[in-house]
Amino acid sequence: KNQVEQSPQSLIILEGKNCTLQCNYTVSPFSNLRWYKQDTGRGPVSLTIMTFSENTKSNGRYTATLDADTKQSSLHITASQLSDSASYICVVSAPGGSYIPTFGRGTSLIVHP
Amino acid sequence: GAVVSQHPSWVICKSGTSVKIECRSLDFQATTMFWYRQFPKQSLMLMATSNEGSKATYEQGVEKDKFLINHASLTLSTLTVTSAHPEDSSFYICSVQHGGRRNTEAFFGQGTRLTVV
Lengths: 113, 117
What we know:
The structure holds two protein chains of two kinds.
Chain A lengths: L3 E4 L2 E5 L4 E7 L6 E7 L6 E7 L4 E4 L2 E6 L4 E6 L8 E8 L8 E2 L3 E6 L1
Parallel strand pairs in A: 2-11
Antiparallel strand pairs in A: 1-3, 3-8, 4-5, 4-9, 6-7, 7-8, 9-10, 9-11
Chain B lengths: L3 E4 L2 E4 L5 E7 L6 E7 L6 E7 L5 E2 L8 E7 L2 E6 L8 E9 L6 E4 L3 E5 L1
Parallel strand pairs in B: 2-11
Antiparallel strand pairs in B: 1-3, 3-8, 4-5, 4-9, 5-6, 7-8, 9-10, 9-11
C-alpha cells in the first residue's frame, strides 16, 4: 500500500528561526514528490516539485531535498516568518495516466513572534 | 501554473437540502478533475475523479448517489451534496492536473467550507 508519512505532526518555532520537516514514503514506482503549503481554510499551494533525478530544489526560503534511494524528503524553511504558519503537505505520485497522488497528513507549523 | 476557481468558498445549509459546489479551470482545458474532502487536522481524501463527458469514478466508501458529480465541459466540474447531513460538514477541494507525465502537478481550488446545520 502506498503511504506517505510526515513528521513532526506539529511544530512551534520562533520567528526568524529555521526548521526542517520530514516526509517518508513507500510509493513505488515513483514519479514525483511535491510539497504544498495549506493555509487554514484554503486550498493547498505548490511550493516545490521534484522528479526522481532531482535531489534538491529551492523556492525562496523553502528548500526541498529528495533521497529516492531511502525514499525520504525534507522541507527546510529558512528565517521563518509569521506568514509561514500553515500546514505543509508532502504529496507523492506514481507514474501513469490516471495519476492519483498519495497525500501525507501534513505538518502543522506555527511561527510565534 | 493552472488557475482553479472554486465557488462558493463557504456555505451553510439546512439538513436535508442539497448544495452544489463548482470547480472551474480558468486557463486550460481539464479532461479530468479531482474532488477531495478534508476533515479538521486531517489530510485530503480523494472522493472521486471527474471525467469530462463521462461518469465520475468514485473512491471506495463514497456514495455516488449522495455526491453527484457532473463534468459537462472541459472547464467546469460540479459536486452536489444531496440530502446533506451534519456529518457531511467538511472542507471540499477540487484539483486539476497539468504538466507532463513526470512532472504532472496538481493545482487546487481555494476550497469550500460546508456546514450543515
